[in-house]
Amino acid sequence: MKIHIIGGGNLGGAVAIGLAQFTLDNTITVTRRNVKLIEHLQQYGIAIAADNTKGIAVADVIILAIKPWQVDTVLDEVLPHLSGKIIASAVSGVTLGHLNKKVGGTNTVVRIMPNIAAQYGASATCISAEASDIAKLQPISDLFDKVGTAVIIDEKLMDAATVLGACGTAFALRYIRASMQAGIEIGFDAKTALAIAAQTALGATEMLLKENAHPEQLIDKVTTPQGCTIAGLNEMEHEGFSSSLIKGIKTSLKKIKE
Ligand SMILES: NC(=O)c1ccc[n+]([C@@H]2O[C@H](COP(=O)([O-])OP(=O)(O)OC[C@H]3O[C@@H](n4cnc5c(N)ncnc54)[C@H](OP(=O)(O)O)[C@@H]3O)[C@@H](O)[C@H]2O)c1
């Protein structure tokens, strides 16, 4: 497929590099107005441009990775070149209804919510479309399965997907940072503490996904009765570990809906 990503920022750049590295037979173009800032993408075989309409006529898929307030202007600009294409919008908060009203007709419109780990083939991507377009989702779902995991969801869960899957990257990183800081306090230098904390989080995730297990099943394997793990874990829960995470995720969702 010919994939044209409009908005080569944090997300657009990460998705472009992921698709270039983990999918075959696709050609990728990324645009942003300050094209100098995406010159590094060329080393992955990605074409870059400052003009959104350049080459867009031959694209099969247009991925929107711009800010919500830029959507209408950009769509007005590219509308004459869009006929028959799949428009995949990663823009949070802009609904299928709004997008379909702007570009509906011969185009298939889907919403995607990837995260920046797409760059390393490890995004959790949620995808949704109107019922009439669900059958046409497959190429997008296949594409994002190659840069991680793609899940098709109801659009009403898109805000929740943004919080759990996209904001979730920051939540997971803050967990690792806290572990690292604790590691320093119990004797490691910063570099070693980070290496141990990050690899331990990666290892826990690998086990969870490979064994298709519930977290508590694996926790049972590392908690010896009266041992140090359960003592630490329960102390964290007394201090509100799970509760603060749940509250934070609910606060993010409330904020996104404002
Ligand atoms: N970051 C994430 O983890 C993440 C995850 C999921 C979804 N999202 C969504 O993805 C969208 C982009 O987020 P982001 O974090 O990547 O923002 P960002 O880093 O600010 O990227 C937006 C990019 O759009 C470019 N842009 C602005 N106007 C343009 C135009 N007229 N034509 C072409 N490019 C244009 C900007 O570059 P120039 O100013 O140089 O044009 C900028 O590079 C947002 O709607 C966000 O909600 C982000």
Automatic annotation (TrEMBL):
<comment type="pathway">
    <text>Amino-acid biosynthesis; L-proline biosynthesis; L-proline from L-glutamate 5-semialdehyde: step 1/1.</text>
</comment>
<dbReference type="GO" id="GO:0005737">
    <property type="term" value="C:cytoplasm"/>
</dbReference>
<keyword id="KW-0641">Proline biosynthesis</keyword>
<keyword id="KW-0028">Amino-acid biosynthesis</keyword>
<keyword id="KW-0963">Cytoplasm</keyword>
<feature type="binding site">
    <location>
        <begin position="65"/>
        <end position="68"/>
    </location>
    <ligand>
        <name>NADP(+)</name>
    </ligand>
</feature>
<dbReference type="InterPro" id="IPR008927">
    <property type="entry name" value="6-PGluconate_DH-like_C_sf"/>
</dbReference>
<keyword id="KW-0560">Oxidoreductase</keyword>
<dbReference type="GO" id="GO:0004735">
    <property type="term" value="F:pyrroline-5-carboxylate reductase activity"/>
</dbReference>
<feature type="domain" description="Pyrroline-5-carboxylate reductase dimerisation">
    <location>
        <begin position="155"/>
        <end position="258"/>
    </location>
</feature>
<protein>
    <recommendedName>
        <fullName>Pyrroline-5-carboxylate reductase</fullName>
        <ecNumber>1.5.1.2</ecNumber>
    </recommendedName>
</protein>
<feature type="binding site">
    <location>
        <position position="52"/>
    </location>
    <ligand>
        <name>NADPH</name>
    </ligand>
</feature>
<dbReference type="Pfam" id="PF14748">
    <property type="entry name" value="P5CR_dimer"/>
</dbReference>
<feature type="domain" description="Pyrroline-5-carboxylate reductase catalytic N-terminal">
    <location>
        <begin position="2"/>
        <end position="92"/>
    </location>
</feature>
<comment type="similarity">
    <text>Belongs to the pyrroline-5-carboxylate reductase family.</text>
</comment>
<dbReference type="Pfam" id="PF03807">
    <property type="entry name" value="F420_oxidored"/>
</dbReference>
<dbReference type="InterPro" id="IPR036291">
    <property type="entry name" value="NAD(P)-bd_dom_sf"/>
</dbReference>
<keyword id="KW-0521">NADP</keyword>
<dbReference type="InterPro" id="IPR000304">
    <property type="entry name" value="Pyrroline-COOH_reductase"/>
</dbReference>
<dbReference type="InterPro" id="IPR029036">
    <property type="entry name" value="P5CR_dimer"/>
</dbReference>
<dbReference type="GO" id="GO:0055129">
    <property type="term" value="P:L-proline biosynthetic process"/>
</dbReference>
<dbReference type="InterPro" id="IPR028939">
    <property type="entry name" value="P5C_Rdtase_cat_N"/>
</dbReference>
<feature type="binding site">
    <location>
        <begin position="6"/>
        <end position="11"/>
    </location>
    <ligand>
        <name>NADP(+)</name>
    </ligand>
</feature>
<comment type="function">
    <text>Catalyzes the reduction of 1-pyrroline-5-carboxylate (PCA) to L-proline.</text>
</comment>
